[in-house]
Amino acid sequence: MSKQSNNGRRHVILFGGFARMGGIESFFADLLEQAPCGENAPALDFVCWSDGAGAVRSKLPKDVVLHNSPVRWGCNYGIPDLLLVLRFLPVLLRAERIILGKQLTPAAGKWLLKLKRSGRLSAKIAYITPYRPKELWGELPPLADFELFDEIFVQAPEFADDLFEMGFRGDVHMVPYIPPRPQMLGEEGPRSPLRIGSLGRLAGQKNLYYLIDIVALLKQREPDLAFDVHIYGDGALRESLDQHAEKAGVANLLTFHGAVAREEVPAMISGCDLFLITSDTEGQCLVALEILSAGRPLIATAAGALPVILSSSTRGALIPFSDAAASAEIVAAMCKELNQGRRTRQSVINSYLEDYDTDTIAGEYARLFGW
């Protein structure tokens, strides 16, 4: 945990909107928990806007100084980000390094860039992108953002390639989000019926219609395979997904559990035998690391950093984006492996730790940030 130092160094995490504990919120909470102590460690400030400073405070180490703005109205116009920068400008101007938790809205970004060009803002600015750059910015390079950022952290080689192709000239670091430590809760499995899980928002990006199509073909082609599907998360598409499942004839196999509190995620993951991610787009996909850290195999589309995460077949398998028949065959093969005891939780965890050791990756962030 970080402790305030007396050496005059200050690092600021300029987070933007802190609405709920999603992947990027969880990452920064983990990052701050791993920040080292000592006389040479910088003091840490966390700057955000939210309607509940107490909720944010509860997620941060006690020695991190919280600067919170309650202004949330005008999100469509970037007003909360701009007011955040203006209100806590003295905090930003005295920083040695500013770490961006989310992409700033144009008005706030232009204000910081103006300060940087004038020389008033001397901090080195780092951005940890939660998405693939070309998905985040499109094909055209974001010239203002690229001038503002001194370094960008990405989670997959393709993400770094995007930045080079788009003309970014700063430092690019490929470091995954800080992964969770392994823990095996509950039984080894497999259960009967097998429990196939899905964890994430019920949003278009997650393409759960495709998951339902795969489940329908799995039921049709493997009539003797006993399984059911448990979907964790909430969102605007719940009713539409119910209707799609009914039309596909698999509504009886699906259970929608709604949102899951962060502290309940490990037990929920351990309560399933394998997981399926059918997203069209992803970034790091912290959920994938949480699944593997519990020893559960993962089958996923090749979105975002998922091909890197599933680079070892011991952890799971990749499926095509738009071939439900081929995907159903891959899921069926995994189910048979689990039923035959040919894939254990410990083997998944051992493979996961080869690339996702918590202390090693936290240490890499500390080294790059100069903590």
Judging from the principal axes of the Cα atoms, what is the shape?
A: elongated
What order do the helices and strands follow? EHEHEHHEHEHHEHEEHEHEHEHEHEHHH
Q: Low-confidence stretches at least 5 residues in length (pLDDT < 50)?
A: 1-6
Output the CATH homologous superfamily of the largest domain. Answer: Glycogen Phosphorylase B
Q: How widely separated are the two ends?
A: 11 Å
Main sheet summary: 7 strands, parallel
Strand order of the largest sheet: 3-2-1-4-5-6-7
What's the total number of strands?
Answer: 13
Mean pLDDT: 90
What integer value in Å does the Rg equal?
22 Å
- CATH topology name of the largest domain: Rossmann fold
Structure description:
The chain starts with 9 loop residues before the first strand and ends with a helix. By secondary structure, it is of the alpha/beta class. The protein is built from 16 helices and 13 strands. It folds into two domains: 10-179 and 357-369, Glycogen Phosphorylase B (Rossmann fold); 194-355, Glycogen Phosphorylase B (Rossmann fold, 3-Layer(aba) Sandwich), CATH 3.40.50.2000. 40% of the residues lie in helices and 18% in strands. It has helices at residues 23-34, 53-59, 79-87, 89-93, 106-118, 133-137, 143-148, 157-166, 208-221, 238-248, 265-270, 286-293, 306-309, 324-339, 345-355, 358-369; strands at 10-17, 43-49, 65-69, 97-100, 124-128, 151-154, 171-174, 194-199, 227-232, 254-258, 274-277, 298-301, 316-319. Mean pLDDT is 90; it is low at 1-6.
